[in-house]
Amino acid sequence: MVGSKAGDRKFRIVRTVAEFREQVSAWHRNDLRVGFVPTMGALHVGHMSLIRRAQEMTDRTVASIFVNPRQFGPNEDFAVYPRAEGKDTLLLAEGGVDLLFAPSVEEMYPGGAVTKVSVPGIGDILEGEYRPGFFTGVATVVTKLLLQAQPDVAVFGEKDYQQLLVIRRMVQDLDIPVQIEGAPTEREDDGLACSSRNQYLTENERAVAPQLYQIINAVAERYRKGERPPELTHWGKQALLDAGFGHVDYLEVRDAETLQGLSDPARAARVLVAAWLGKPRLIDNVPV
Ligand code: AMP
User: Fold this and answer.
1) What percent of the chain has pLDDT over 70?
2) Does residue 194 have its Cβ closer than 6 Å to ligand 1?
3) In angstroms, what is the span from residue 207 Cα to ligand 1's centroid?
4) Does residue 93 sit within a domain?
5) Does 200 share its domain with 145?
6) What does the DSSP assignment read for 181-246?
7) Are residues 37 and 179 in the same domain?
8) Which residues are marked as active site?
9) Residues 122, 204: one domain?
10) Domain span including residue 275
11) Does position 1 have pLDDT exceeding 80, yes or no?
């Protein structure tokens, strides 16, 4: 058993569901636990921290790269979303990932795939309100990926905090047998959350961008000291506009579990924001 756990560590890329499923079930037949990190590619240190988390928890690690057309709205950036499979592959191989699943759109959605998974309630507010259909697209593709391979653990970033909660709800509601693990947000030295979309920022915008994190931290601090929405969130939105952000979709202090408004100050809270800075729309969140 030790031999089979130690051997067979060669990085592989597969592009079909059949190969993806076969490799994971072969590991399972050998009593190896499998960790899974779904991504849309253009990998950065944030993604790699999820991979390390999966490696700590399991014996074999799979990443997927799939720019999922069904989670982009008609006016969103699907066509120009950054794609860098060559560089991503090197990073994953160097990072000790065992398998990359990189399917085509046709492989994931063969003609006639109409079934959707939607998570009403928590999927309709905040991001769901500003990006209608987004969480249905995410929930559908993540359900498919989890059922295709049935990993033991799947790791998601707190950078997309609402997405993590939507996926936890979905996995619980659908009895999908996987452990969902949340991993903390990786940031640049100046506090800006690492994101594939940061590369769209101009030099000036990049200089302004870290204020997103500074301002939501200030909102969290003021909340701790007793300030409350809506005055507090008005202050935060104005601070973002004064810093140079173009438009603030939302800046909210919400219940950290339900993302509803907070009535009980004893419950854990989370500050969540989405704001435009030039072309990109940046999102971030911090605990209170
Ligand atoms: P994406 O490729 O942007 O769809 O993200 C794939 C996964 O990486 C999601 O679980 C994200 O939450 C996570 N992720 C993205 N950026 C970061 C970051 N800066 N720190 C930690 N996780 C991240």
Assistant:
1) 97
2) yes
3) 22
4) yes
5) no
6) EEEPPPB-TTSPBP-GGGGG--HHHHHHTTHHHHHHHHHHHHHHTT--TTHHHHHHHHHHHHHT-S
7) yes
8) 47
9) no
10) 196-287
11) no
